[in-house]
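Example: Pyridoxamine 5'-phosphate oxidase family protein.
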Amino acid sequence: MTHRISDLESLERLYGVPAAPSIRKEVDYLHPHYRAFIEAAPFVALATSGPQGLDVSPRGDPAGFVHVEDEHTLLLPDRRGNNRIDSLRNIIADPRAALLFLIPGVAETLRVNGRAEILADPALLERFAIGGKAPRTVLRMRVETVFFQCSRAVLRSRLWDPNAQVDRASLPSAGTILAALSGGEVGGQQYDDELPARLKTTMY
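Written out as structure tokens, the predicted fold is:
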């Protein structure tokens, strides 16, 4: 524990002064260049905080599914899921939220921080309908800070490198995990066998 860093002075002495670009790239609105990233992204991770702790939830749809309402506002549909609604529970208690946008083939990511609220206005929900199916709610996020993250993490991870893809069969299946954690009450081979069809029919 002698090398534990527990104060800002020690931390800042270790890391030094931030590079000028890392400061200048942060703004408090959706600059047109940042808007281009959002409109090209088919995937975003939503981070929230609440009384039960932290949560990061994946959200995905065709590129541009997060709508830029204006330079200070984003709209994010909440699609069908497992009904745990961990993110939404957190937002009810604490509106602070963060988004991390990823674009296939692009090494930079985009980070947006702000405050979210949950809307269930029928006209708004209809705007986000796909195949005649609207989301149950839409998150409206008031933007506070926006900046792009440099490419190092994605490049180091080889995230978009086809040669680095992992064979799904090399990892435990969803049914295997559920069966192990539930003592066999749910999951198993039948769960795995039925999953592809279930995902197809319950996507929206």
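The radius of gyration is 20 Å.
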